[in-house]
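Recap from last week: sequence in, structure out.
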Amino acid sequence: MRIRKRKTVFLAVAIALALQAFPVSYGFAQTASERKVAPAPVTPQLQSAGALSFGPNNVLFVGDSKGGLVHAFELSDRDIDSQAGVALGNAKTFEGVDLVSDIGAKAARLLNVPTDDIRINDMVVHKPSRQVFLSVHRGHGPDTVPVILKVNNGQLERLSLEKIKHSSAGVGPVPVNETLEFGQPQNMLAITDIDYWEGEIFISGVSNEEFASKLRRMTYPFDSKVSTTSIEIWHAVHAQFETRAPIIAKDIRKIDGTPTLIAVYACTPLVRIPLDILQDGTKVRGEMIGELGFGNTPIDMISYNNPMDGQDYVLVTNTSRSAKQVPLSAIGSAQAMPVNVTNNYGPAGVAQYPIPLSGTWHLDLLDAG
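Predicted structure tokens:
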């Protein structure tokens, strides 16, 4: 696996860091005896490490699906390393630079396990320093150890969380023993994405309730209040309204002055929801405005302004289709897709343009330029 700096012809700015999220063998192996004696890094605050996001004042939010918690780590200057001197390519000539090659093997060496015992779950960039942070699981099943890694001058380092000022908040009931249709633990979807917006964090995921799809919002610094909204959407592939489908990735942007949640779902609607209707205890119906295409799963989403045309866009990566670029103006003006039709396997609905980012999993912006 590797983090790759990508430049694409549709942009003049460097917008994407690409990370293949699933373990791949790179020829690194250990004997069974070496694996048994390898010390496990200890991260007492975390039961799992998934969705990542930065808030103000260097606060790193970490989604802990297993614990049903969002953690906030207040990083200090000693926890962050400026990458100002690191070559990051040239946006004007579309020249890309590998920040880390064979990242899976390097993470495995750092954590003393075989490469197939490493899973990289999410990636986020600390914008002031341009430093990349990764949420990683070492091992599998009940023996999984969550770790936060950072990229420093092309090398991986473990972020020691034990002495960092820390607070956490529960998101409410999450699945414990439930499984999805294909046997995967539903708990892995308890917290799928975290976004900070104007003093609040917005957490998507599923609960253990019948109306499972949830959007939680809470203020930061944390208090005891969690606002929970149940989300229902039209699912064009299944030709029905659904209350269990989870938001996989989301972003918040102002559309015509209205703060709006833009979300992609597992299979595979693109939905918009005004923030002001996300009230505690309510059930809302998000507007499906696009279908990204059957046989596929969205992975990550970023939004950006393209200096070549001055327009705002959303970019979504997918497992088995090219990335999709969607104009923010089209998201605002698109009509909700009709519900009185037979299955629509898409792509369909809002204008969407394929972008050649094959093999790209996680995305984040380095900075505005």
